[in-house]
Specification:
By secondary structure, the protein is of the alpha/beta class. The protein is built from 11 helices and 14 strands. The strands form 3 sheets. An 8-stranded parallel beta barrel has the order 7-8-9-10-11-12-13-14, surrounded by 6 helices. A 4-stranded antiparallel sheet has the order 2-3-1-4, with no helix packed on it. Bound molecules: phosphoenolpyruvate (PEP) and manganese (II) ion.
Length: about 350
């Protein structure tokens, strides 16, 4: 449960409360910069029983291990990224190369996206690569290039933060800080992201259960950063025909479990360019709030993830198909999602 403290609770009063809780065997964790306590094993009836319920401003029983990601905490999350609305009734399209490779590549991509009305460009500058002998991105030069291209074409940058030591650098160039699959369980990194004032795109760990993913989101949310987007990108399974198994069910379920926007990445989710459009559509129909898709001016020449990069013409068709799906499926989805438009 979450227990919100009354505004003028003194340190001494707080100590009395936590001592009492602890004497009854309840652990309490500070959250929201001291505005709330998380009591993982208590509920409001228990606090009534021990006579301290009225010491709090408000009590929320989440009945889930994750607290701030739960729908009991909040029914919906919407925020803006430089005037572009994210979450709830809004659908966002993000596209770009796996890696920023050159000025020509990223500027061509940015020009193309802006022509299509897409508002977000993706591109990794620090890449998590399985082999130490693969292209790992252009580093800071890559961040500068994607930032310049985005500025020129009025786009927002989505790029991955690999390590805490790069936080300031990435913050200077990113509009949305991406946490990749491999870092979803890097809890000390997530904790620091609770203190930043930029949205975090939290990709699903390739081995993560939905519950573990939502707890990872709580690491960010409990620090006070409420701008978290979840991104389904496929999980590992016994079958290796596709790079990953894209968990479409998770997208639909997350719409029930959490107020957070849920995006989908059919590129890493499938690993095969031809399978990207059908899975992009499936994710949209299942209730995704957005898509992040790898595109490349010359897919065969991509320095990373060439097999899953789609060409510009294919992406253009996909955008128009997604546009109709968004208006169709969002208008039939009750009031929660009424009036959606792709951005
Ligand atoms: C990416 O989006 O560039 C990426 C590396 O994805 P993931 O973390 O999902 O593998
Ligand atoms: Mn990639």
């Amino acid at each position: 449960m979450i227990a919100f403290l009354k505004q003028h609770t003194t340190t001494a009063e707080l100590k009395l409360l936590t001592d009492k809780l602890s004497s009854y065997g309840f652990s309490a964790y500070n959250a929201l910069n001291g505005a709330a306590l998380v009591l993982p094993s208590a509920n409001s009836a228990m606090l009534e029983d021990i006579g301290i319920a009225s010491a709090f401003e408000k009590l929320i029983d989440t009945n889930t291990p994750y607290q701030f990601a739960s729908r009991a905490y909040k029914t919906t999350t919407t925020f803006t990224v430089n005037n572009v609305l994210v979450g709830n009734t809004h659908f966002n399209m993000v596209a770009g190369p796996c890696s920023v490779e050159s000025e020509e590549q990223i500027f061509k991509t940015a020009a193309f996206l802006s022509k299509l009305g897409v508002k977000f460009i993706r591109g990794g500058a620090y890449k998590p690569r399985t082999s130490p002998y693969s292209f790992k991105g252009l580093g800071k030069d890559g961040l500068k290039l994607i930032h310049q291209a985005a500025k020129e074409y009025n786009l927002n940058v989505v790029t991955e933060l690999m390590d805490l030591s790069l936080l300031d650098e990435v913050m200077a160039y990113a509009d949305i800080v991406q946490i990749g699959s491999r870092n979803m369980s890097n809890f000390y990194l997530l904790n620091e992201l609770g203190k930043i004032n930029k949205p975090v795109l939290l990709k699903r760990g390739m081995q993560a259960k939905i519950n573990e993913w939502l707890l990872a989101a709580d690491y960010v949310l409990q620090g006070g950063n409420e701008q978290v987007i979840l991104c389904e990108r496929g999980i590992r399974s016994f079958d290796t025909e596709l790079r990953n198994v894209m968990d479409i069910g998770a997208i639909a379920l997350l719409n029930q479990l959490t107020h957070l926007p849920v995006w989908a990445d059919p590129s890493h989710g499938t690993g095969i360019a031809q399978i990207v459009p059908p899975l992009a559509k499936a994710a949209t129909v299942a209730g995704a709030n957005g898509l992040i898709v790898e595109i490349h001016p010359n897919p065969a020449k991509a320095l990373s993830d060439a097999k899953q990069a789609i060409a510009f013409d294919t992406f253009e068709q996909l955008v128009s198909q997604i546009n109709s799906l968004v208006s169709e499926s969002y208008s039939s989805k009750s009031q929660i999602n009424a009036g959606a438009a792709i951005a």
